[in-house]
Amino acid sequence: MKTLSVLLIFLAVICTGCGGGTNTDAENAATERNNVTSTDDMKASLESIAQTGEMGSAAMGFRETLEELKKTDSAKADQLLSDLDKLEAASSPAATKKIAKDMADKL
Fold first, then answer.
1. How far apart are CA 106 and CA 4, in angstroms?
2. How far is 90 from 48, CA to CA, in rounded Å?
3. Whole-angstrom Cα distance, residue 91 to residue 49?
4. DSSP state, 37?
5. Beta carbons within 10 angstroms of residue 49's beta carbon
6. Could you tell me if 59 and 83 are in contact, meaning their C-beta atoms sit under 8 angstroms apart?
7. In a domain, 27, yes or no
8. DSSP 47-90
9. What's the domain count of the chain?
10. Where do the segments described as Disordered lie (predicted)?
11. I need a surface site. Which of 2, 29, 30, 95 has the fewest CB within 10 A?
């Protein structure tokens, strides 16, 4: 019976977790960065990636944004899509930083 009580308390602690459910400013900014819908948003995300060398989910929406850019500037969009392939394949933070900076400069 004592084991059951300890088990129930342990289960209650696990289920409640530890921490509030509120988002911090950093989490809100990260969420906004993931919603890339314009070249300005994309440039801001690329500049952030160029600083940290970590892409994570910050590049979500890049490809769609560049597909939209094709309608107005096909040559630039094609070059940036090629760079995006390289960025996604980058294997080191240094390479990620360099490619992201180059892409941001093109925007």
1. 64
2. 16
3. 14
4. -
5. 25
6. no
7. no
8. HHHHHHS--TTTTTTHHHHHHHHTTT-HHHHHHHHHHHHHHHH-
9. 1
10. 20-40
11. 2
Tokens 């969009």: give the residue: 77
Place 79 in a pLDDT band, splitting at 50, 70 and 90.
Answer: very high
Question: Six-digit token pair at 91?
Answer: 């294997």
**Residue 85 included in any domain:** yes
**Per-residue tokens: 73:** 């500037």
How far is CA 1 from each of CA 4, 5, 7, rounded to the nearest angstrom? 5, 6, 10
pLDDT greater at residue 93 or residue 12: 93
> What integer pLDDT is reported at residue 102 of this predicted model?
95
pTM here?
A: 0.62
Instruction: Provide the pLDDT confidence category of residue 100 given band limits of 50, 70 and 90.
Output: very high
Range of the domain at 79: 39-105
- In total, the chain counts a number of residues equal to 107
